[in-house]
Amino acid sequence: MKKLIAGNWKMNGSIASNAVLVQSLLEGTAASQCLVTVCVPAPYLAQVQALVAGSGIDLGAQDVSQHESGAYTGEVSCAMLRDFGVRYAIVGHSERRQYHGETDAVVAEKAQRALAAGITPIVCVGETLAEREAGRTEEVVKRQLAAVIHTNGHCISEIVVAYEPVWAIGTGKTASPEQAQQVHAVLRAQLRAASAQADRVHILYGGSMNAANAAQLLSQPDIDGGLVGGAALKAVDFLTIIAAAQ
Ligand code: PEP
Q1: 93 assigned to active site
Q2: Does ligand 1 come within 6 angstroms of the Cβ of 229?
Q3: Which domains does the chain have, with CATH numbers?
Q4: How many angstroms is it from 170 CA to the middle of ligand 1?
Q5: Which of 35, 36, 185, 233 has the highest local Cβ count within 10 Å?
Q6: Looking at residue 215, what DSSP letter applies?
Q7: Are strands 160-163 and 203-206 parallel, antiparallel or unpaired?
Q8: pLDDT tens-digit readout, 174-210
Q9: Which residues have C-beta within 8 Å of that of residue 16, sequence separation ≥ 6?
Q10: Using an 8 Å Cβ cutoff, are 150 and 108 in contact?
């Protein structure tokens, strides 16, 4: 399968800097053989939709509401995202779990809401440093994914999974290719037990992926792409990661 490289801009960017970054990405990905998406802050969806129109770069969001519509001040619905041509949405990023109290059940509902709207959820799972040190990595990621499988049943082959060890996000500490592959293999087995189509699911690695370590991570058999934070804000670095994925 083609690898998928997804940029997560987090709460970064401006109209001026987005235009410069996306222009460089358009030039650098014209002949790209892999799938590329940029998950941008909600206020910039219209801007980036216009910039990437007709290109090979897909538009992504960083979150969705678990509700359909109504009295949920500040939330953004899947239907609204569809209005702007959004193809992917990150759900359950560890920063949302940590700072916004998102539970496994809420993340599963968000994934369901996205799938119903024709948006591919990029479901993030990952253990904290304390959980890894306590030998609980597998238990934690399996619990997180199980909630999404439970809620989404046979649609599970339509999701993207991102394994993002919390201790590696934005810290400069990357899981070794072997550490990441080990967890990806666990997630693949769990998906296979749930769906005959499990091998279609992209399982991305995220956590300080950069221009220097991407090739080795992406060469692992169950690493089907990357969810890239900091390095997605620098065109040269993001393009190097995309090149490593071909
Ligand atoms: C992320 O936010 O999904 C992420 C992986 O961030 P970083 O690449 O900066 O660690």
Answers
A1: yes
A2: yes
A3: 4-244 (3.20.20.70)
A4: 5
A5: 36
A6: H
A7: parallel
A8: 999 999 999 999 999 999 999 999 999 999 999 999 9
A9: none
A10: yes
- Residues 207, 165: Cα–Cα separation, whole Å: 6
Q: What is the pLDDT of residue 36?
A: 98
Rounded Cα–Cα distance for residues 91 and 43 (Å): 18
Gyration radius (Cα) of the chain, Å: 17
Cβ–Cβ under 8 Å, residues 78 and 112: no
Tens digit of pLDDT for each residue in 207-234? 999 999 999 999 999 999 999 999 999 9
CB atoms closer than 10 angstroms to residue 85: 15
What pLDDT does 154 receive? 81
| Helix ranges restricted to H, the chain | 15-29, 45-52, 78-83, 94-99, 104-116, 129-133, 137-152, 177-194, 214-218, 235-244
The DSSP annotation for 41-95 comes to: -GGGHHHHHHHHTTSSEEEEES---SSSSSS-TT---HHHHHHTT--EEEES-HH
